Amino acid sequence: MIIPESITGGVLLLWFMLTAASLIFVIYDLQKNTPAMGVMKLAWGLIVLYTGPVGLFVYLLSCRQPMPGTHDAYIAAHWKQSVGSLMHCVAGDATGIILGAVVTFHLGLPNGLDIIIEYIAAFVVGLFVFQALFMRSMFGGSYFTAVKKTFFSETVSMNFVMVGMIPVMAILRAKMPGGDDPAGLMFWGISSLATIAGGLTAYPVNSWLVGSGLKHGMMSASTGKPAEGGMTGMAGMAGMDMHHEQKKPGVPFTKKLLVFLLSVAFLALAVWVTSYFVTLRLK
Q1: Which among 131, 151, 198, 200 is most buried, taking Cβ atoms within 10 Å?
Q2: Mean pLDDT of 120-145
């Protein structure tokens, strides 16, 4: 069944109108009501920009304080700390992926190279900007220490983001007219759907990373660390502010290796599934 372009265009227009309204609300609320850290404000803004009312719904459930002075208690649950970790990751990775897609379209590159370049762009923006650059103050101001300490967590998290995003992006951009053109609404609609899919596939590993003390969670602007009761959050990461660091047994190298290999296996599976629907070309 082929859906008329007039219907898809109307749905996309409605989606982006709701996205604009959601973004305005989140920006206002983060300035006036919810005391999130600056980096989380940026992350939430990008997430809602990419995922519209879905991102707003997640924000309301996990971050927005219901009453003044309740933010620390509201974000303390482990699943909310994990959402904070996920949002920070997806915001950086999706930004890199979308930028990579824009560049590859204008260069006229084949879809196989498109995926590779988007992966590299996501890794660069996610690790070197959203993790290391924005978080270097938590590592004594050392950018290189921040890169080293966040390399593993960003790699496995991004791999699982790509598990959800690759099939949606590659298949729909190939099948939907104008799906690969950044000048059209269809491209951005597909990017929104892909970002939502990436968030779903990356949540479990982010929950594990936060629970293991390998990744930060939702932060409180009043304390500069996760709320009391959160599993670990920023202060649980090795090399961070020693005044707030929570002592946890280190994760064995074998377990890290297993998680890394698992992320690579799922990534390979996502590419394999995608190749069943579209021909992936490198030249």
Answers
A1: 198
A2: 86
